[in-house]
What we know:
- The structure is a homodimer.
- The first copy, chain A, is of the alpha+beta class.
- The first copy, chain A, has a single domain, classed as Winged helix-like DNA-binding domain superfamily/Winged helix DNA-binding domain (Arc Repressor Mutant, subunit A, Orthogonal Bundle), CATH 1.10.10.
- Chain A is 58% helix and 12% strand.
- Chain A is built from six helices and three strands.
- The longest helix of chain A is centred in the C-terminal third of the chain and has 25 residues, at 88-112.
- The relative contact order of chain A is 0.13.
- Chains A and B meet through helix 2, helix 5 and helix 6 of A and helix 2, helix 5 and helix 6 of B.
- The structure holds a DNA duplex.
Amino acid sequence: MPRAATTSDVFNAVAEPKRREILALLIQERDVGGIVAAVGLRQPSVSKHLRVLRDVGLVRLRRRGRHVFYRTEPAAIRPLHDWAKTFERFWQHQLLRVKERAEAKVSNTRKEIP
Amino acid sequence: MPRAATTSDVFNAVAEPKRREILALLIQERDVGGIVAAVGLRQPSVSKHLRVLRDVGLVRLRRRGRHVFYRTEPAAIRPLHDWAKTFERFWQHQLLRVKERAEAKVSNTRKEIP
DNA sequence: TTGACACATTCCTATACAGGAATATATATT
DNA sequence: AATATATATTCCTGTATAGGAATGTGTCAA
């Protein structure tokens, strides 16, 4: 079985670096031409990335005449954030242990010096 | 160009749901057999997922005789967390606006009642 | 109406993938 | 040494890309 479709969930959609770049860009609304100018890709590739982002709800669009303006939908990133946050307390534990070891070492060094 | 390799970065590695499941599982150290029993996959598939997670630093291993014990390396998830957190203030803005609209509505309703 | 412009979609291709089956490697047991 | 156990790797296959090229669609302008 191949990897899940990029359109299936947010995790797959943001696995592509260019799409993350586009998401960061679209915190400020831009039309497709503006995105093409900003990232180093041809217009059809950009449109395809936008389609993926749209399908998982990571961007919204607004049509104005011939132009289509896209903007990031930040709330759609929350599931990813919440998942990562699940591990936060564990890496904090790690940092604490590192700190404790460092302090213990200092303490030992002090004992050794006299 | 195909999708980037799963081994290239943390974002690609966690794009696969089973790997996220394994990461959650390995907060508590387990051997491969234990993982196989927990997730519904054959041993070779599990070993391959572990290889990917290992290559991007998301898990560490400890050999004990014939058994290999894996555990999640929570700190390796931080880049993902930090990236998602970049958008936190924007979705908070959204929530604030929703709240403001709701309060404005209540206020209007009150004005209409008398 | 005829272009011109902005964007989206389709078709093509090389590549990466995930699981299954078979096999290899390493360690423990007898 | 021979065998059993635990895990890793290799080979195979159907599927999902991501970008390029070509084409389709909708809107504005003259």
